[in-house]
Amino acid sequence: MKNENIKPNARELALEHGISFPSDDELIMMILGTGSRELPVEILAKKVADVLDISDDESTVKNLLSIKGMGKGKALAVAAAIELGRRRYRYKEAVIRTPTDIIPFIRNYSMSQKEHFICITLNGANEIMKIKVVSIGTVNRTLVHPREIYSDVIKEKAAAVIVSHNHPSGNCNPSEADINVTQTLKTAADILGITFLDHIIFSQNSYFSFMEHDMIKNEGAKAKTLCKLRRQQV
After folding, report:
1. Whether 210 contacts 174, CB under 8 Å
2. Which helix (H) or strand (E) segment is 60 a member of?
3. Which pTM does this prediction carry?
4. Cα four-point dihedral sign 24, 25, 29, 31
5. What is the pLDDT of residues 98-128, one digit of tens each?
6. How far is CA 233 from CA 69, 93, 99, 101, 102, in A?
7. Distance between CA atoms of 234 and 229, rounded to whole angstroms?
8. What residues are paired with 81 via a beta bridge?
9. What are phi and psi of 90, to 5 degrees?
10. Cα separation of 23 and 60, whole Å?
């Protein structure tokens, strides 16, 4: 029996263009299958997407269950899909040598109409450890504090970080606020003994790297290696 609650063409788009073609909301709609009488599946999927942005491994199911219309079955189905994707798509094995190497792992946020500030942690071999949304802003502004960035970085014992955020306007040039927050995060990283590699601003079609524009002065060997690798590939 065809499920009329699923957004038209979501499954057809996936079948025709591949599973990477639908938006995050559409993928969640396919996992949920149905909404409720009070909450259509389109709205429920959007609420789930918002909750996932601010959840970690330990809080995902609990936060999903806090959404009206999400029963245990739906919450576990979403959590299971995320865990399966994590196991199958191991971004933790990816080695970051240039700023462009990180773009494929965060490009999905470029379609959002709100700024998402993201922290990427790396180990001593420049391999990705974790990608986490730290804060979500309005159309053109997001706020972030060093403690929001580095509390988890310290717990993970990461060697280095890259921060990034999307510009919904499509213009990737850094604002004065972007420059100031970059300097603040760099200063905090120096105090904590963590290498601050880069701040990348991105849109659907472009990006701006503070490192590539020599706007981050790093003395650490790890940063020098990343800069050297970048120059060799230019």
Report:
1. yes
2. helix 60-65
3. 0.63
4. positive
5. 888 999 888 888 888 889 999 999 999 999 9
6. 50, 21, 11, 12, 15
7. 9
8. none
9. -90, 85
10. 20
